[in-house]
Design goal:
The protein has 470 residues and is mostly helical. It has one domain: Amino acid/polyamine transporter I (Up-down Bundle). 74% of the residues lie in helices and 0% in strands.
Length: 470
């Protein structure tokens, strides 16, 4: 067994930098362009914007316990570290393997989507038709180069891209509200909120928040982790929730309640770009199409950084080869973990290309569905861990933070998980057999991690000592 001390990462990331990182992972413009039309068409119609607010409320309850426990989890393993401290080494490593599969899936989903979008953009401006995976591999190479270097470089790139994509949507929002035409009132009518398929609407909405919980992954590189991580978590979640709710409402209001639902049926893939072009003019539509590409790139880069830090944490704990836990002497980055993640993503993209899979209908739909299911399971496990941890240690006796909010968050997450499982074939656009297969892969990842933990070195996360309540 190696006796080398664990490597650490360093940085001076403040609240703003971490917020940029995780909000970029949520890909705001991509959600408005891709998820909103689906929610309007297959969910609860013109009241779909309200669903974002409902899901944000559930996730805020989750964040209360998550942030309360963050000061007692010095490791930067996010779900892995939380579950391990609360439930033990085996469930912790099981959740780590599940997280690797989950975040790999969501990154692969975006690689498929960005390849198709870039190809469409190039052809729109008279360029040649190129296989989608060529563009995906190009994006992968750029992301790999940025991920190899210091985290603050990625933070600056993400900051610029995020500001650009958010800015055009906010301009669109302001113009729609300023015109004052067709302003939607569906959210004021509860029967409309629960109309159609509320379950599918919640499923699409909660999938749009994937990434906000990754604030804890950057703990080692935060300026003041005990303050920065909770603040970044709350701020990122609130910003994402408000942005989605306001902007999706503006999309509906640009058409009118009934007309917006009809527009999604006519051309759901281009509905948002058409809406922005109608509101801001052809130039606005062209800019939005370009920023959709940068939005997807920002999401890939953010998830790459998250995955690299999972590999790094597992390398340090010897759950993966120790080399994954090395940090670069000059960039202070998880360079081996970053390269490992880049190579694994390249292998999957090549496999998808050889298999002739459609980048949107198959790669994006299947991988995004897998990630949604995985993240909900991980958040529910984390809620249970929070409850058990505070019950066992007594290090925090605030009833709201350690019992009430985590319990309510767990109930909400279990409801979302049940709705996702029930509608999973719809989410992935495939058969019940495919849905069962994907679910089995996630379960197998967790079980493999739990079993693997019994073959490795002792628990790398020292259990927190029991402390008498103050």
């Amino acid at each position: 067994m190696s006796t080398d001390p664990p490597h650490t990462l360093s940085g001076r990331l403040g609240v703003g930098s971490i917020v940029f990182m995780v909000v970029a992972a949520a890909a705001p413009l991509t959600v408005i362009a891709g998820t909103v039309p689906l929610g309007l068409a297959a969910g609860n119609g013109a009241a779909f914007p309200t669903t974002f607010a409902l899901c944000c409320g559930i996730l805020l309850l989750f964040a209360v316990g998550f942030c309360a426990m963050s000061r007692h989890v010095p490791e930067a393993g996010a779900f892995y570290a939380y579950v391990q401290r609360g439930l033990g080494h085996a469930p912790g490593l099981g959740s780590a393997f599940l997280a690797l599969v989950t975040y790999t899936a969501v990154q692969l989903a975006v690689y498929g989507y960005v390849g198709a979008v870039i190809d469409g953009l190039v052809q729109h401006y008279g360029g040649p038709a190129v296989p989608w995976f060529v563009w995906s591999v190009l994006a992968l190479a750029i992301v790999g180069a940025l991920g190899y270097r210091h985290i603050e470089l990625s933070g600056k790139v993400l900051g610029v891209l995020l500001v650009a994509e958010v800015a055009i949507v906010l301009v669109f929002d302001v113009v729609v509200v300023g015109r004052g035409e067709h302003l939607s009132t569906a959210f004021l009518h509860p029967p409309q909120v629960v109309s159609g398929s509320l379950g599918i609407a919640i499923m699409f909405a909660v999938a749009s928040f994937i990434g906000f919980e990754a604030t804890a992954v950057f703990r080692d590189e935060a300026r003041d982790p005990e303050r920065t991580i909770p603040r970044a978590t709350y701020l990122a979640l609130i910003l994402i929730g408000v942005f989605y709710t306001l902007s999706s409402w503006s999309v509906v209001s640009a058409w009118g309640d009934a007309a917006a639902v009809e527009a999604t049926g006519a051309d759901p893939g281009n509905m948002i770009l058409t809406t922005i072009a109608n509101t801001l003019g052809p130039v606005g539509g062209d800019v939005a199409q370009i920023l959709l590409v940068t939005s997807l790139f920002a999401a890939i880069l953010s998830f790459h950084n998250v995955l690299a830090r999972y590999f790094f944490a597992l390398g340090n704990s010897r759950a993966l080869p120790a080399a994954c836990g090395r940090s670069h002497p000059r960039h202070a980055s998880p360079h081996v973990a970053s390269l490992t993640q880049s190579v694994s993503a390249l292998v999957f993209v090549v496999v998808f290309a050889i298999a002739g899979m459609d980048p949107v209908a198959q790669v994006f739909a299947w991988m995004a569905g897998t990630a949604t299911l995985g993240v909900l399971a991980l958040m529910a496990l984390t809620c249970v861990s929070v409850l058990v941890f505070f019950r066992r240690t007594g290090v925090d006796t605030r009833l709201w933070h350690t019992v009430v909010a985590p319990l309510l968050g767990l109930a909400g997450l279990l409801l979302c998980l049940w709705l996702t499982v029930s509608n999973f074939p719809t989410l992935i656009g495939g058969s019940p057999g495919l849905a069962a297969g994907i679910g089995a892969v996630l379960v197998l990842a967790f079980v493999l991690g739990a079993v693997w933990s019994r073959r490795r070195t002792p628990d790398p996360v020292t259990p927190a000592p029991a402390v008498e309540p103050a």
